[in-house]
From TrEMBL:
Matching InterPro entries: NAD(P)-bd_dom_sf, SDR, SDR_fam
Signal peptide: none
The name this protein goes by in its record: SDR family oxidoreductase
CDD domains to which the protein is assigned, alphabetical: BKR_like_SDR_like
Domain of life: Bacteria
Listed Pfam families: adh_short_C2
PANTHER family associated with the record: 3-OXOACYL-(ACYL-CARRIER-PROTEIN) REDUCTASE (PTHR42879), NADPH-DEPENDENT REDUCTASE BACG (PTHR42879:SF6)
Recorded family membership: Belongs to the short-chain dehydrogenases/reductases (SDR) family.
Organism: Marinimicrococcus flavescens
């Protein structure tokens, strides 16, 4: 299916690996030109090379921390009029809420709520003036089913979700859509590091932790990043123009809910 985004300009944040990389690859396969961001310049360039070789797409890299004002300015200078914005940033570490002070909360809010809001603020009016825009925020299944040890993420991402609920509807008549994708457990470095941390804290083999986690998923497997990327690309398509202000779970059935 032709998604109708050939020649569209896309910003994909935190795209050097994991789900961000998968989104960038899928958008490139569907004809978009990319500005991708990541903090590690070498890893980012490797990803850009891989995408170019696989798709032939134009890929520009901006190695900055997107959670800083300077980082956002650099990315927007590289792509001042994006048609597509994929917001993404690494989640805050797990822990006990009793151990988090104001500094930890501010960092979580900056990364997972304020940064995407700032990028949305900087881009959606231009999208609306051109009559087409797609914003996809990568959040978490924890927005619907909070995880106690991920309280920092739960709080920050829930704040972004509330913001999007109103803003997306206010823009719905302009040709701009804003949606959130809520990933469950995907085969990424973050998932693996979480297993390793839990194994250390509980004194159990990492393989045991992984098997127990997989068994909780009705699909009996972890998600593949490319599956996530394809969903992102579809939400950025012309066909998805009537989908906005939604929180789309992609979790193999893990969250047990009727809505």
């Amino acid at each position: 299916m032709d998604l109708g985004i050939t020649g569209r300009k896309a910003i994909v944040c935190a795209a050097s690996k994991g789900l961000g990389k998968a989104c960038a690859m899928s958008l490139a396969r569907n004809g978009a030109s990319l500005v991708i961001n990541g903090r590690n310049a070498e890893t980012l360039e490797d990803t850009a090379r891989e995408i170019r070789e696989a798709t032939g797409a134009d890929v520009l890299t901006v190695a900055v921390d997107i959670t800083t004002a300077q980082g956002r300015e650099a990315v927007l200078a590289a792509c001042p009029e994006p048609d597509i914005l994929v917001n993404n940033a690494g989640g805050p570490p797990p822990g006990d809420f009793r151990e988090w002070g104001e500094g930890e909360w501010v960092a979580a809010l900056r990364a997972n709520m304020l940064t995407p809001i700032e990028l949305i603020r900087a881009t959606v009016d231009g999208m609306a003036a051109r009559g087409f825009g797609r914003v996809v925020n990568i959040t978490s299944s924890a927005v619907k089913a909070p995880i106690a040890e991920l309280g920092l993420s739960n709080g920050a991402r829930a704040g972004l979700t509330g913001f999007v609920a109103g803003t997306a509807r206010a823009l719905a008549a302009t040709g701009v859509t804003i949606n959130n994708i809520l990933p469950g457990r995907f085969e990424t470095d973050r998932l693996r590091s979480g297993f390793a941390a839990k194994a250390r804290s509980q004194g159990r083999p990492e393989s045991e932790i992984e098997a127990a986690s997989r068994a909780q998923i009705p699909a009996r497997r972890f998600g593949r990043p490319e599956e996530f990327g394809e969903l992102c690309a579809y939400l950025c398509s012309v066909q998805a123009g009537y989908i906005t202000a939604q929180n789309v779970l992609i979790d193999g059935g893990l969250v047990s809910s009727t809505m």
